[in-house]
Amino acid sequence: MLARYMAGAVAARTGDEMSGPALLVTGLAVTGSPLTASWLLAGLTVSAAAGGPLLGVLLDRARRPGRLLACCLLGYTAGLLVVLYGLGRVPDAALVGVAVVAGLLGPALTGGWTAQLPRVAGPELLSRANALDSMSYNVAGLAGPAVVGVVATAGGGTATILVCAGLLVAALPAAWSLPDVRAHPAAEPGSPATERAHATAGGRIGGSDHGVWAELVEGFAVIGRNVPLRRATAGSAISCSGLAMLVVSAPVLGAELTGEGGHGALLLAVLAASGLAANAVIAAWGRVRRWDRVLIWGTALLGAGMALAAGAGALWAAVVAAAVAGAGVGPQLTALFSVRHREAPARLRSQVFTTGASLKITSFAIGSALAGPLAAHSASSALLAGAALQAAAVAVLTAGLRDTTRPAGRSARGG
Predict the structure, then answer these.
(1) What pLDDT, in 10s, does the model give residues 162-200?
(2) What residue numbers bound the domain in which 114 lies?
(3) Which of 64, 119, 127, 378 has the highest CB neighbour number within 10 Å of its CB?
(4) What is the CATH number of the domain that holds 40?
(5) 184 in Cβ contact with 208 (< 8 Å)
């Protein structure tokens, strides 16, 4: 079951990573307008903040969450294909609207899928499975843009969306076969701290008679009042905004150092490969006791890598800096998922994950927008700003940690 889950996760997330670049390449190839291409990408990402929490509620209420995930995959795929068919045939504004609707389903491909992991792996294997799940993001981040580049070169811009759609469809069997909820998630025990925070938020651990709006409010209240969840959610969102500055400035840095912006793709590939390697070490190592501290050190290492990149005077130095940053990005993501699995009430787990994914997508978009003017001045400016954001994230992640952190092994959720 875990192998099938991982195969589906890699396919779905690679398709997700491809979707944005594919829309950019296809929009530019068909219309010749960078503005149209950028608006299509913006439409696909901007709606995630609204879609994530609602998707989470629906997944938490579903007896067969895998079937709902499969429907989200189909809807996302259909949206991309409608955009492809409509380019040059219908008004651009209408296609941006289609991208916005498709983007509502985006968090299902990330947080919504990860939220199902405890039902696949069980508490004994959850820590290692969580590291493997995080590796699927690294694989997708490495493969997605690369596949877009290869396909666009070999088959043209429109072929990229078709390949992206094929990967998303390939994930359907794995999603459809995810375990059903045999007992309502409310019956699953959460950690004592989680249940206290849930009670403080005014929610009930048992029962499923809440309305959708009530569960939305309850989910946000749990994130807001559970200190480890609030800290991890806020810190990771700030860090993701800083990471966007690294992504945006990488091509500029490559051009500044070598005269070729294409070397920026090398830096991003090193970033993803280093994150993959770091997570492989964690998966092989096994159980980690204090994920909160891994989250802090991963964020700090990412910031250190960005600061090193800002001062790089040669391509080899930038490659080393990207490797340092990646060694932080990989464990950071694994630790974030582990904190969420440990702290989220079982009945609200999907909402916690999809809401967190939505916030990260939105913060990445904000960081990208801010990075553009900075990178236009110099790559170092954007990288230093990103490093400063990592420092701010570390400050958020360490606030009050001594009073609230406990070894993960004491939690019923593990990880």
Answers:
(1) 999 999 999 999 989 888 776 544 444 444 444 444 443
(2) 1-182
(3) 127
(4) 1.20.1250.20
(5) yes
